[in-house]
């Protein structure tokens, strides 16, 4: 039988603060990222850059919806808000995918070719370096805290890394080789990922543990979870015991 991992109240509070700070940093960065990407994309007529910026806005809106959900005083209200929040997030992703797809098709049939964007390339490269660091830090804190939701949110952050890589390849190929179709092609990949996120949000796919609870608080609900972030495969602790720091018990061996 696996032994329970002991987590003091002080350590839990510290980890909770770390996760909140990391989420705040991620949201702040996404806001800056969105402004820069959309501005640079408009100047360069880059559908991929604009789509990347719009995705950042959706990610911020998603975090805001979750914050609104958990600001409710009762569990029943939080559950009701969750359904509304997930539907709104899904619709936002579908709208993003539709816009980017239409603009990409217009670009591919020769409506307007994207120009070179140094700002876009730098932004994609910076995001490719920043997002994995934020995701890894949040995932480590979430796993130690026993919060499946924090781990799941770190995976959302990692998605930005993949988007950054797709954007960077598209912009560089267009700039170096003059392959104008690389930009709308990259945008179509971003649209496909947006559809995937939208479908998951619409279905309500998420981890079993709500924000702020440990896996031990789920009272045996893990069997209903098919998300790897709250399964043993994700290295999440099977049980977290929250206790106050105190003198050792005499029964300790």
Automatic annotation (TrEMBL):
Q: Name the keywords, alphabetized.
A: Cytoplasmic vesicle, Endosome, Membrane, Synapse, Transmembrane, Transmembrane helix, Zinc
Q: Please classify the protein's predominant subcellular localization into one broad category.
A: membrane
Query: Where does this protein reside within or beyond the cell?
Result: Cytoplasmic vesicle, Secretory vesicle, Synaptic vesicle membrane; Early endosome membrane
Where is the Cation efflux protein transmembrane domain positioned along the sequence? 26-200
Transmembrane spans: 21-43, 49-72, 84-102, 117-137, 158-182
Keyword Membrane assigned:
yes
Record's signal peptide: none
What name does UniProt use for this protein? Cation transporter
Q: Which organism is it from?
A: Glycomyces lechevalierae
């Amino acid at each position: 039988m696996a032994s329970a991992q002991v987590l003091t109240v002080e350590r839990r509070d510290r980890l909770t603060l770390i996760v909140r700070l990391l989420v705040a940093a991620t949201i702040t960065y996404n806001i800056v990222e969105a402004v820069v990407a959309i501005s640079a994309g408009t100047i360069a007529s880059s559908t991929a850059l604009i789509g990347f910026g719009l995705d950042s806005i959706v990610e911020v809106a998603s975090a805001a919806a979750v914050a609104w959900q958990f600001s409710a005083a009762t569990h029943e209200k939080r559950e009701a808000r969750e359904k509304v929040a997930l539907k709104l997030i899904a619709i936002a992703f579908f709208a993003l995918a539709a816009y980017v797809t239409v603009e990409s098709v217009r670009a591919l049939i020769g409506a307007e070719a994207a120009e070179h964007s140094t700002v876009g390339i730098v932004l994609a490269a910076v995001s490719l370096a920043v997002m994995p660091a934020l995701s890894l830090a949040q995932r480590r804190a979430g796993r130690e805290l026993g919060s499946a939701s924090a781990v799941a949110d770190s995976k959302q952050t990692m998605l930005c890394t993949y988007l950054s890589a797709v954007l960077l390849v598209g912009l560089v190929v267009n700039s170096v080789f003059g392959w104008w179709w690389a930009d709308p092609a990259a945008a179509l990949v971003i649209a496909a990922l947006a559809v995937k996120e939208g479908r998951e949000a619409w279905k309500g796919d998420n981890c079993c543990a709500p924000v702020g609870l440990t896996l031990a608080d789920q009272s045996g609900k893990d069997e209903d979870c098919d998300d790897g972030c709250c399964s043993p495969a994700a290295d999440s602790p099977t049980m977290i015991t929250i206790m106050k720091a105190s003198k050792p018990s005499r029964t300790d061996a």
